[in-house]
Amino acid sequence: MRLARIAHPSGVAFASIEGNGDDAEVLEIAEHPFGQPNFTGKRWPLADVRLLAPILPSKVIAVGRNYAKHAAEFGNEVPSAPMLFIKPSTTVVGPNAPIRRPSDVGRVDFEGELAVVIGQPVKNVPAARAASAILGYTVANDVSARDLQKSDGQWGRAKGFDTFCPLGPWIDTSIDPSDLALRSEVDGELKQDGRTSDLVHKVPELVEFVSRVMTLLPGDVILTGTPEGVGPIVNGQSVSITIDGIGTLTNPVQDL
């Protein structure tokens, strides 16, 4: 199932997407998408609704340096345990929403990532049971103010600006995340070309590790890390991140 959050003629709702291309439709879900969804009976062509961020998490937990080649491109070692940082919920925006680039922060980079969406409250869940805690997977852009990341010595400010976590276009609930192609393009030029099989710490391990630290709530998001090839984005550009089997997340860049 592909779960989305949409703005439709009567308001905002969760929905399931059926079909592809010009024949795709969205079926409105009553209340929330967790558990067995209940449908209202309302449906619209996908072209007639606007896709929003597919989930509004209470927190976004991100993992740094989880691809060896990405760590190496910045002269860093891969940490022996997952390196965690938090992005505020206010960083989250949906497809086609602008990444608003502060004018006084220097270099701002895109980072294409696989995102894990949690489906139920969990604490201390073992890796062997991690799949039962996951609602599905979506595409993320861990936007980063690179100069601040270096000067601050910690990443809260550099990663925490409003709009610095685009998510979308929807959540796929059935895909196997172990070996997916991930590509990032800026204005159509390929910048990142990686596979999730190169993750140092795999998805089940990450869910176990994070849930030992904090309770994960339905809708919380874990960003799994980015492959090599990240780079700067500037006003007027467009960033598209594609994960095969899920879809493409595109966002324009605007200076504040």
From TrEMBL:
Domain Rv2993c-like N-terminal residue range list: 1-54
Q: Which domain of life is it from?
A: Bacteria
The cross-references to PANTHER family, in alphabetical order and at most eight, read: ACYLPYRUVASE, ACYLPYRUVASE FAHD1, MITOCHONDRIAL
The Fumarylacetoacetase-like C-terminal domain is annotated at 59-254
Keywords recorded for this protein, A-Z: Hydrolase, Metal-binding
Per the record, the GO terms for biological process are: carboxylic acid metabolic process
InterPro entries, alphabetically? Fumarylacetoacetase-like_C (IPR011234), Fumarylacetoacetase_C_sf (IPR036663), Rv2993c-like_N (IPR018833)
Species name for this entry? Amycolatopsis rubida
Descriptive protein name? 2-keto-4-pentenoate hydratase/2-oxohepta-3-ene-1,7-dioic acid hydratase (Catechol pathway)
Q: Matching Gene3D superfamilies, A to Z?
A: FAH, Fumarylacetoacetase-like, C-terminal domain
**GO molecular function ontology, one term from the record:** isomerase activity
